[in-house]
Amino acid sequence: MATISAPHRHLLGIASLATEEIEALLETADGFVDLNRRSDKKLALLRGLTQINLFFESSTRTRTSFELAGKRLGADVVNMSVGASAIKKGETLIDTAMTLNAMHPDVLVVRHHDSGAVALLARHVRCAVINAGDGTHEHPTQALLDALTIRRRRGRIAGLTVAICGDIAHSRVARSNILLLTRLGARVRLVAPPTLLPPGMGPQYGVELFHDMRAGLEGADIVMMLRLQSERMQGSFVPSLREYFRFFGLTWEKLASARPDALIMHPGPMNRGVEIDGVVADDIDRSAILDQVEMGVAVRMACLDHLTRHLREAA
Ligand code: NCD
Q1: Taking burial as the number of CB atoms within 10 A of a residue's CB, which of 62, 132, 294, 310 is the most buried?
Q2: In what order do the strands lie in the sheet with 107-112?
Q3: Among 20-29, 152-161, 229-238, which stretch is predicted with the lowest mean pLDDT?
Q4: Which residues is 81 bridged to in the sheet?
Q5: Is-cis flag, bond preceding 203, omega within 30?
Q6: Which residues have a Cβ under 8 Å from the Cβ of 261 and sit 6 or more positions away?
């Protein structure tokens, strides 16, 4: 079976994965979903290995998900809290990388507020590095868990129409999903006000652009909402939150343009009443938001498994 191996020692983005590697990761993750539903959830695949979660940006679900994934596979997992670390004292990213490297971790899971910072760090360590989100660049495990969620709920990805809606410009989730979903044969639409679309985005990326929710959602199979990422904005990109909700917030009324069984997704954290109406998000038949969280643990287990297979084979 295909696995992430040389030359991909790391998982830095969807862009650097071959399609068969994506398929193999989804297959492995699918198997871990069943394991995670059992009362005994523990395997020993990563026994003896050390995983360090290095988060320069705050995170609840992604960090917890990676921690559970490592522990369920038997690794020793350490969470580095950046607030209390040397980074706040002015240590450079590369010094941090080399210091951690000297402790012989086997996997580093890194989230950083700058695009490209995780790839830079990966060049200075000997272990596998997983990108848990770098700036507005990529968030590959989120796109993989979204793909697994869609595949399990719809049985396929190829041929589906996926509308990714909201703050695309600041979203690494959107970027990784555009790369992954177009690769697996979905029709991807981006629905956003012009101010929240990245410059230069268009048909050359295999996507269709819409500035109106009803038109963008017309006949969609999947409606993926994104958080308005105010912390990444300098200045104002929307007139007001109330107006944003009125035109781009997902409500039952706007959702009526999509297919009657369209699945609602959101990577979290959600801003209820800003990009999504709380009652829509909570509809257990239509919303796959908690499935996404569940699939996240399984996908991260698959990534950890694939990236450490060469260590087991060498032992
Ligand atoms: C996303 C992120 O951090 O990029 N969240 C996540 O990982 N679940 C999206 C967001 O912060 O809005």
Answers
A1: 132
A2: 76-81, 50-55, 107-112, 128-134
A3: 229-238
A4: 55
A5: no
A6: 221, 286
Task: Report the distance separating Cα 135 and Cα 112, nearest Å.
Answer: 6
**Distance between CA 149 and CA 289 in Å, rounded?**
9
Q: Is the pTM of this model over 0.90?
A: yes
- Cα(132) to centroid of ligand 1, in Å? 9
| Alpha carbon of 269 to ligand 1 centroid (Å) | 7
CB 112 within 8 Å of CB 57: yes
What is the signed CA dihedral for 115, 120, 125, 128, rounded to 10 degrees? 40
Number of CB atoms found within 10 A of residue 37's CB: 10
Give the CA distances from residue 301 to residues 42, 73, 90, 102, 132, in Å, rounded to whole numbers and listed in that order: 11, 7, 33, 25, 13
SS3 11: strand
**What distance in angstroms lies between residue 250's CA and the mean position of ligand 1's atoms?**
18
In terms of Cα–Cα distance, which of 238, 190, 237 is closest to 210?
Answer: 190
Dump strand ranges (E) for the chain: 50-55, 76-81, 107-112, 128-134, 161-165, 187-191, 207-210, 222-225, 263-265
Whether the Cβ atoms of residue 309 and residue 35 lie closer than 8 Å to each other: no
Residue 112 token pair: 């950083």
Atom of ligand 1 nearest to the CA of 167: 12
